Amino acid sequence: MSSGDERTGDGVLAQMSDAEVEGYLTGLQRRKQALPTAEQEDGGATRGFALLMLTAGIFGMYASVLLIRTEKQHLLDPASQLACDINPLIGCGSFLDSPQNQLFFGISNAVYGLAFFAGIVALALVLLSGGRLGRWLWQALCLAMVLAAAWLVWFQYQSFVVERALCPYCLLTWFATIPLIVHTWARSVQAGHVPAPDALRRFLVHGRWYITIGVYLVIVLIAVVRFWDQWAMVF
């Protein structure tokens, strides 16, 4: 910036009120915070992001293992009472016998979920140990998150519209996957591994938790409206 530009900028600031100056400086600070760090550009991540990945992966693996064990119990004794079948609204029994439970090659969806979340845990441990992931791997991870989002939407449709029931283990995977999707995209866009307009980058970086909570609230609202006549079974 030239000395003339600096004088012009100083003149503009001098004409602002205290509140306007504070807002201007806050905006500058927020734009700076949305810029990538050297660590991110090099393929690393903050400790907070790595811990979020690890937590989401562990929750997802736990839910997948519970679902696999439940499927095994159901196969061995179809008449047995499943721990996940809490009431007519909340249960997983109806899902286990549906074709949607084995979308690809006759393999349980829970097995794919276990493999996915195990991979997330492995990557999280690499990042926590100070490791770096290649640009291509971050891009592949973002693509995986797009597929995970499509998978979630499809299963939510099956729950809300087709089966009209809520699988508790599936709810746990939703809870774990949603922040993972949002934060992975926010981190990758911030680092420049996925090209995006500056405004979108700032929106994702600063609004990632608002987006996550917003998605949670939308799902809760849909569940409340969709199962309005069935909530008496729960309470």
What does this structure look like?
- The protein is an all-alpha fold.
- It has a single domain, classed as Up-down Bundle (de novo design (two linked rop proteins)).
- The chain is built from nine helices and no strands.
- It has helices at 3-14, 18-33, 38-41, 47-76, 93-96, 109-128, 135-163, 168-191, 198-226.
- The longest helix has 30 residues, at 47-76.
- The chain is globular.
- The chain starts with a helix and ends in a 9-residue tail after the last helix.
- Mean pLDDT is 81; it is low at 1-9.
Summarize the SSE layout with pairings.
Layout: H1 3-14, H2 18-33, H3 38-41, H4 47-76, H5 93-96, H6 109-128, H7 135-163, H8 168-191, H9 198-226
Helix pairs in contact: 4-6, 4-8, 7-8, 8-9
Beta-strand content estimate: under 5%
| Helix count from the secondary structure assignment | 9
Major sheet summary line = none
Low-confidence stretches: 1-9
Average pLDDT, rounded to a whole number, is 81
What is the class in the CATH system? Answer: Mainly Alpha
- By CATH's scheme, which homologous superfamily applies? VKOR domain
Task: Please identify the oligomeric state.
Answer: single chain
CATH architecture: Up-down Bundle
- Radius of gyration computed on alpha carbons: 23 Å
CATH fold label? de novo design (two linked rop proteins)
Note the gap between the termini.
Answer: 65 Å
> What is the number of strand segments?
0
The shape is: globular
User: Any idea how many domains?
Assistant: 1
Order of helices and strands: HHHHHHHHH
SS class: mainly alpha
The helix fraction, in percent, is over 70%
